[in-house]
Write a structure and sequence with these properties.
With 433 residues, the chain is α/β, with parallel strands linked by helices. Helix content is 40%, strand content 22%. The radius of gyration is 23 Å and the shape is globular. The protein starts with a helix and ends with a strand. The chain binds zinc ion (ZN). Zinc ion binds next to β5.
Length: 433
């Protein structure tokens, strides 16, 4: 009796081991798969434009870039995208992936945000994540989330349990008591910090929770509120910047108006978000320090188009419509002065999939399509501190590739609206050919 049981047990163990082995072998095979991706044209983001390019992808990394078909290893899977222009996977440095809502009939999006429990929101947010990939964005920097939903989502994506862009997340953004920011679902909210000691504690809490980057709101202004009153003192901002840098984290500072922008820049922020009406001295300081400007012009266009569904009070259209030209004008001035830009959409609610429309505003602000594309590739990668692995199609880089119909270097709207195929980490995640 006992020996039969032992035999059954042994058989079970062997079976389990066999199943595990085959699963391992399978994932190993995927990880080691060699693919040759052919593009009619390829812009590698380092400034080189290839014709009839062949990108050899080995597992999750790019092995080589060239034009010699004899370099394709025997047995490699060939993906023929010779009808398209190839770009590196695009990077959006300002999203809120977990502020996801849908168009549930009759339920204003602001209300959905407050009435959905975090676990449900994270599950629903996979739809926004998929739409983000579909517009060619394979990496995001997510700047502000409640209940560490962003950390959960980042980890689920990294584990392969959810399909979405690679996320670098900030946990709670820091803001003062009484900022007209969205009411948190749970009190007290994890991001409130008044005075230098609380700022230090809150930065440390985000790092301890697993944040990749720190976010601080240095002015009023969000949704249909376009005021830009500075909310933090210079000393508080400087404390946040130094604490973030002390942990090897970068910091992104929100300011709708010029005062918060001025103090954020001289405190040493890595990027400045939104900032309108900046004075010349602040713009010059950004050039000198290499501060990245993320103007997020298009998100106010999205609010104008969708404010009724979001649930804004009447009068929002006029306010937002008056803010957009000031935002664009500040971007034009900063671009002319030589400030470095990174593309950030501030995507929220149902804006996912429209992330790259910001590039159209950059062209309006005076950039060539080539310069605009740099803001979503090499510049964005450098802002993330990932300039050696993301934002470029080159040997050793992560295999994130996008195929676009047409020529985005001639017409930026091709990059915005004609994404046909996307690879992330060597796996094809979108194929609309
Ligand atoms: Zn934002």
């Amino acid at each position: 009796m006992r020996s039969v049981r032992v035999l059954v047990l042994l058989f079970g163990v062997v079976l389990l081991a066999a199943v595990q082995l085959s699963a391992q072998a399978q994932s190993h095979a995927t990880a080691n798969a060699v693919r040759a991706v052919r593009f009619g044209k390829l812009r590698d983001a380092k400034g080189k434009l290839w014709t009839n390019a062949i990108v050899i992808v080995d597992g999750t990394k790019i092995r080589s870039v060239g034009t010699d078909a004899s370099a394709i290893p025997a047995g490699a899977e060939v993906i023929d995208l010779s009808a398209y222009t190839g770009l590196p996977g695009l990077i959006d440095v300002h999203t809120h992936m977990t502020m996801y809502t849908d168009e549930t009939p009759g339920v204003p999006m602001l209300k959905q945000m407050l009435n959905t429990v975090p676990a449900v929101t994270v599950f629903l947010a996979r739809k926004g994540a998929m739409r983000t990939l579909e517009c060619g964005v394979t990496t995001v920097r997510d700047l502000g989330s409640d209940q560490y939903m962003d950390i959960a989502m980042r980890d689920l994506i990294n584990r392969g349990e959810m399909i979405g862009p690679r996320m670098f997340v900030s946990g709670y953004g820091l803001y003062i008591t009484n900022t007209p920011y969205k009411k948190p679902a749970v009190q007290p909210d994890g991001g409130i910090a008044d005075g230098v000691p609380e700022v230090l504690r809150t930065v440390r809490q985000q790092v301890a929770a697993g944040a990749d980057v720190i976010k601080l709101y240095a002015s009023t202004g969000t949704d249909d509120d376009v005021t830009g009153f500075e909310t933090y003192s210079y000393e508080e901002i400087k404390a946040a910047v130094d604490a973030a840098h002390g942990f090897g984290r970068k910091i992104a500072i929100h300011s709708y108006g010029p005062d918060g922008a001025r103090d954020a820049v001289r405190a040493g922020t890595d990027s400045l978000e939104h900032a309108t009406d900046m004075d010349d001295a602040t713009i010059q300081e950004m050039v000198k320090r290499g501060t990245y400007y993320v103007p997020t012009i298009d998100h106010n266009r999205y609010y104008v188009d969708n404010g009724d569904k979001i649930g804004y009070a009447p009068g929002y259209k006029e306010r937002l419509a008056a803010f957009i030209p000031r935002n664009l004008e500040t971007a034009r001035k900063a671009n002319k002065a030589g400030v470095k830009f990174a593309m950030g959409s501030d995507a929220i609610y149902t804006m996912f999939g429209e992330n790259t429309r910001e590039l159209g505003w950059f062209v309006k602000a005076g950039m060539t399509p080539e310069q605009a594309l740099r803001t979503a590739t090499v510049n964005a990668a450098a802002l993330l501190g990932k300039e050696n692995s993301l934002g470029t199609v080159a040997p050793g880089f992560t295999a994130d590739l996008v195929a676009i119909q047409g020529d985005p270097l001639a017409d930026i709207s091709d990059a915005i609206a004609k994404v046909k195929w996307v690879m992330k980490d060597g796996a094809v995640v979108v194929d609309h050919r």
